[in-house]
Each structure stands twice: as C-alpha cells, then as structure tokens.
Specification:
alpha+beta, Translation Initiation Factor Eif1, 27% helix, binds zinc ion
C-alpha cells in the first residue's frame, strides 16, 4: 500500500491524483486483427488479455461459440476465419467490456473489394 500523501513513483503525482491504475485499465485493450496466411487462409488474432486470464480455456470457449478452429499461443488467441463481425458480441457476453475491444477493420479478409 502506498503512503498516504506520498508521491507515486510511476507517474510522479500525489497518490490521491495518481492515474496509474486508470491507465493500466485503459491500456488493457483487447485488439482484434486478421492475418492472412499461406493458401489464402485467414485467421482472427485476439490479443491484449490480462495475464490472469486462462487463454486456453478462453480459446476453447471462443472456438465453440464461433464454431471454428483455433488455439491459444504466446499470449494471444488465433481463430480460423474472419470473426471480426461477431467477436465483440461474444467477448462482451463473456464479461469483457465492449469499449475495451478494438477491432481493426483496415485489413480486408478477401480480395473482392
Ligand atoms: Zn501513479
């Protein structure tokens, strides 16, 4: 516990004005990107989860909800296919705040457009 009236060693502000915790929460952003790989396969990559989250368990839940293949790897989750349209809804129903889920729509999953 920090000393009352002390200065936060991280942000240099008095403890009662310290913004470190807020920043940590705001930075805990879940990002969703797609990656196109060999043979035109598209994967949805979900990252930014807190270390305390059991990614293996989360990956298997996502796979069953989205009816796709996938795996948890090195701190992120990969899902086969482009699930950007549905994943925010699925994650928010699992308890992740919607405003913390950032979807990257800049990539196209197909060459049609
Ligand atoms: Zn601070």
């Amino acid at each position: 516990m920090p000393d009352e009236g002390g200065i936060c060693p991280n942000c240099g502000l008095p403890q009662d004005l310290c913004v470190c915790e807020t920043i940590a929460q705001e930075e805990a952003r879940i990002t969703v990107n797609i990656e196109r790989r060999k043979w035109g396969r598209v994967y949805t990559v979900v990252e930014g989860f807190d270390k305390n989250i059991d990614l293996g368990d989360l990956a298997s839940k996502l796979k069953s909800k989205l009816a796709c293949g996938g795996a948890a790897k090195h701190g992120h989750i990969e899902l086969q296919g482009d699930h950007r349209g549905t994943i925010k809804d699925v994650l928010s129903k699992m308890g992740f705040p919607e405003e913390q889920i950032v979807i990257d729509w800049s990539q196209s999953s197909s060459r049609r457009r």
